[in-house]
UniProtKB/TrEMBL annotation:
InterPro entries: BUG, Bug_dom1. It comes from Aureimonas altamirensis. The keyword Membrane does not apply. Residues 1-21 form the signal peptide. Keywords: Signal. Gene3D superfamilies: Bordetella uptake gene, domain 1 (3.40.190.150), Periplasmic binding protein-like II (3.40.190.10). The lineage of its organism: Bacteria, Pseudomonadati, Pseudomonadota, Alphaproteobacteria, Hyphomicrobiales. The keyword Transmembrane does not apply. This is Protein in the TAR-I ttuE-ttuC' intergenic region. Belongs to the UPF0065 (bug) family.
């Protein structure tokens, strides 16, 4: 009788699929951006804690190129077994609009795991830019002043912020794409370009040192690190909001129980004291437990895809 019961239990585990033993080997998180950038920093913070929870090493692999779409494509083509994941930002929601020839579709080729954080952004200018505040900057742009705007390339969060600002103002800026925010910030501090809009992870130190002129943050409300810096919305552009939200996905077809196991480990990571401390230093906080779920990311992602597809379509600036 005991042998029969043992055999039945084993059969039940086999029928339940591979998730009962998950994970039994290291997990890889693909970050489709260079090492040392904001997405890489977020990934490495949560990977360490998730690995502790899951009892397996969680590795980070950087695969940049084509605005993040190349690395994301590799994640989309990976086996749907939970061992290859994608961590990236709002840019994933723009891939279909910016790269119409992509061999994959983000809304159907990824399965959600959960949101991680929403990093505020700040609009900054060269320190000798004449506009004294965001109201003066808006007036100058609406008045037709041809200001140059540095970005980290097509589809980067800095690029999306510029698109949103141009659309809200009905004004054109001279967009100057760089291979990353580092070179763009260097040129901004050197006075070679006029403006940037980038994550506080990349702008906070330069703001505090006085190397750039801060104009506004792009969040719905002011942020703790710069309480005196107004939001764009309160400065005359009602409803203006963009954050560099980051999220975790698995390839489409990954079993629900594996995704929920990963989401549980993610939520544990977001409560980790070291993660919260490092996030705070970056000017952000982890999302709530309710947001760090597959269901919440599904809803948020669909909404963001619709938003950016509509905006990019109206500007008619798809990537070649």
């Amino acid at each position: 009788m005991k042998a029969i019961l043992a055999g039945s239990a084993l059969a039940a585990l086999i029928l339940a699929g591979p998730a009962w033993a998950f994970p039994d080997k290291p997990i890889t998180i693909i970050v489709p951006a260079a090492a040392g950038g904001p997405s890489d920093t977020v990934a490495r913070l949560v990977a360490q804690s998730m690995g502790d929870t899951l009892g397996q090493q969680v590795l980070v692999e950087n695969l940049g190129g084509a605005g993040g779409s190349l690395g994301a494509g590799q994640a989309a083509r990976a086996a749907p077994d939970g061992y290859t994941l994608l961590l990236y930002h709002v840019g994933v929601a723009t891939f279909s609009a910016l790269y119409p020839q992509l061999p994959y579709e983000p809304t159907s080729d990824f399965s959600s795991v959960g949101l991680i954080t929403e990093v505020p952004m700040a609009i900054v200018g060269r320190k000798d830019l004449p506009a004294a505040d965001i109201a003066g900057l808006i007036e100058a742009l609406r008045g037709g002043e041809a200001l140059s705007f540095g970005t980290a390339g097509v589809g980067a969060v800095s690029d999306l912020c510029g698109m949103l600002l141009s659309d809200a103002l009905g004004a054109e800026m001279v967009v100057v794409p760089y291979k990353g925010t580092g070179p763009a910030m260097t040129d901004l501090m050197g006075g070679q370009i006029d403006l940037m809009c980038d994550q506080t992870t990349n702008t906070a130190n330069q703001i505090e040192s006085g190397e750039v002129k801060p104009y506004a943050v792009t969040t719905r409300t002011r942020i703790d690190r710069f309480p005196d810096l107004p939001t764009v919305a309160e400065s005359g552009l009602d409803g203006f909001e963009i954050t560099a939200w980051h999220a975790l996905w698995a390839p489409a077809g990954t079993p629900d129980d594996i995704r929920h196991r990963l989401a549980e480990a993610l939520r544990t990571a977001l409560h980790d004291a070291t993660v919260k401390e490092r996030f705070a230093a970056l000017g952000t906080v982890p999302v709530t437990d309710e947001a760090a779920t597959p269901e919440a990311l599904d809803t948020h992602f669909r909404s963001e895809v619709e938003r950016w597809t509509r905006l990019i379509g109206s500007l008619e600036t798809p990537a070649q």
